[in-house]
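Researcher: Structure prediction, please.
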Amino acid sequence: MSVLKGEVPLPPLKDGATEGDITFDEELHGWSGYINWEKYPEKKAEASRHLAKYKFEIPPEYQLVPLPNTNPIIEGVRWKQYHAVMGPTLAPLPDISWKYVQKEKADDMIHVLQFPYNGEPPRRRLVETSVTRNEDHFVRNHGGIPEIDFDAYKLDISGLVRHPRSFTMQELMDESIFPRMSTMVSIQCSGTRRIEQIRLYPGDGDELSNAPWGEGAIGTARWTGVDLKKVLKACGGLRDGAQHLEFIGADTYFKKGQVHNYAVSVPWRKIKKNELRTVVFGYIGARSCKWLYQINALAEPSEGPVQKKEYLYYTQQVGKHNNTYSNGFSIQDMPVSSAIMTPVEKEVVVHDGKIRLAGWAYSGGGHWPQRVEISGDGGSVWYEVPHENLSEKYYYAWRTWWFDLPLDAEGWLELTVRCWDDALNTQPTFVRSSWNFDLHVTSSCHRVAVYSVNKSKPATRKRLEALEKAAVPLEPITRPIPFDIEDDEHYETEMKARNGRDPQE
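Model: Predicted structure follows.
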């Protein structure tokens, strides 16, 4: 079958499979694009049988070859195909989701994956303010965007609570019932800076689970909502044995031929709640579940695939040849990390003995960046960023920073940043130290190669003046200079001063 649905080629049927229409109806009025898979095992089984009929697009290769010079970088064809064959409830979600991106995000976002949408802002702009603009905040989706009417929304609380019940949005926003709380929080994807691991040591190539993120998969906002402890108290509190809280979102997630609702869990003590999503302070961003419709109090962690089978950290001798779900540990609190956001990789920097750097530093688990250090030589000599050049301290948010780095050297240099948090945690020195097969948590010192041009040096200043006079741009530095770089008189004078090129005897 080669019919196009929008711009997505539908997958062909496997040999012997017969085509048949399938419809999974929307569960609730006012909840468009939502199917409750977790409540109905027979529905999940039917969906799995239907998916098994098709030959879906294989994952694109984006690690052993250069990343496409396109935006979006990766389209997500197979994920669009999964939705397209599942009937009218899910088929429109790729187009609907992309329209939200075009409407709500900045025009120059870096679209890492078009669908399910994963995007980050341009490097420089992210740290121009210590609070991220909404249109610049990164987006990390695992499925399509469901559309839920305000008046139709409800949140179900069940499991090991004394009095299971539901709450409407009006109830959750009623401050006479649930006083609001407001906290500055950074949310960081565990894939932040993954591209550094990919460039040196490729790993698992699932374009959704392991999207090729740069340094912008982190954002900071003042989140306002309801403390989940108060919501649980309204349910009579937790029953004996409750150790974890499971969060289930309304988006559909496909994993190895199965369908699920996005489900994760954390130890109950870690949670705050904000309207239609959880915000887990200091934790991996994947636990801050969006389009939240169900909270279950459990004795053990969630069995959902995102919790059980993903966001695992393997040792370096574990990979495709021997990894299992049980031999990696679950990523929870985010480690200390930092990034240089300007200048950017392979930038030509013309300066007069100082280069201004700017970036972010973060540590999860309730720790905060205490010190940021910069090196201009790959990590031999470090300069401390003055405290007045760092943004305000918060328990659960990043600190942005800037620094004028003294720099005499020219040519290719490796600018490096590292952070120390309040518990004296710091970053591994090299990417190799933090590499893991699923390419999570690139927490090593961030390194940026720049080409230094120090115009305070007479010879450099003279060359820049000559380029300007001839209307020849300095960049790209790989483009040859079209005129002679030295006249005969100067050459002869220099050769005489150097006693020629060869020895006399």
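Model: The first strand starts at residue 4 and ends at 5.
Researcher: Thanks, that helps.
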